[in-house]
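Workshop exercise sheet. Pairs work together: one partner reads the sequence aloud, the other fills in the structure field after running the prediction. Swap roles for the next sheet.
Pair: D.N. / O.F.
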Amino acid sequence: MTTADQNAIDPIPGWAHRSGLLSLGEGVCPEGSEGVAGHSFLSERIKRYCWAYDERQIERLAACFTDDAVWEGDVLGQIKIGPFTGRSAIIKWLSEFWPHQHDQRRHMILNTIVDTQTADSATTMSYLLLMSADGKTVKLATSGFYRVQLRRDGDIWQIARLTAGFDAPFWPVELSRMSASGRARHGIDVKATAPGHQ
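Structure field:
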């Protein structure tokens, strides 16, 4: 599918699994009090990411990611977003939305599960409801999920890879009408954002 074919997107139930973006495991049972506490910290990290983005707290947002983190997205397994590699590239891309978003965004995280966990790494999955409020009305902008690979550094869990799956586009116009700068702002058609790649 080309990016101009947004009208042809086929919302297939279970699209994330079918496209290979998700693989739901059996889950893990945390061992001991540290494991239980770790589960809590793991789910809190993605929630702090959402709070920091919505409140436009750039330092708090940056603290959510490892230096070598990757942020990538996908709409129904048919439109790729990113990837953005490295904390600075991720934060630059995310914060560049703010001047263009005049609504209040609320990233609502639901049904968080810990799919895998070791002493220093873990994978969580959460449902996402992205709400938009303009001071008069509140509406659902899109829904989807976050698959988050986390890495532990001392007592801190940080996001090493965030994969966002969207059930519908979150941009305001059809892709066929979106400018090249609009596509770049939304991360569409990005091949690489690591230093030295343009």
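Discussion prompt: The chain has one domain: 26-169. What would you look at next?
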